[in-house]
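User: Quick sanity check before I run a bigger batch. Here is a single chain. Can you write out its predicted 3D structure?
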Amino acid sequence: MYLKSGSFKLKTYFYQPATLSQGRSQTGMVGPVPEGMTISNGSMYATMYKSSHNTRAHIVAYKLKNVPNRYIMQKLPWLPWGQFTRLASKIKISPYIKLGHGQAFSATHKYIYAIANDHLLRHSSQSEEIMQISKKDLQIKRIWTFKICNKSAKGVFHYRLNL
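Assistant: Done. Predicted structure follows.
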């Protein structure tokens, strides 16, 4: 993918493993809607939703060095079985978890962080959540809830740590 905006130029490769099954089977379905992506220590992590209206998704993770070419991950369902199983065995998939809109997504050395906001709510008094997810097993380790108060409180943040 090549992006250009004024003098800013970005060249990148985007891999979208929308399904991790072959043929028409729904087994292993993890997409096809990517929302967030982060790259850390040679691994790519993407939030993959079944539809743009979902607030729950899978995180798909794989090491970029295990990808033989930039198009192969989009062709997983049509690969010969041996090649498919070799590639799929190197991909980690999280359980189906609440990730909110999925675009507020980042990583540190040990963890992935996601702001699990519900983008379908408008003017809600509900709290939002920050998820800390282990890169090792793609499981949620901590959840912080936060809420931005109304204008009379001058944008004060309230938060609570849920373990």
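Helices lie at 81-88.

User: Great, the batch can go ahead then.
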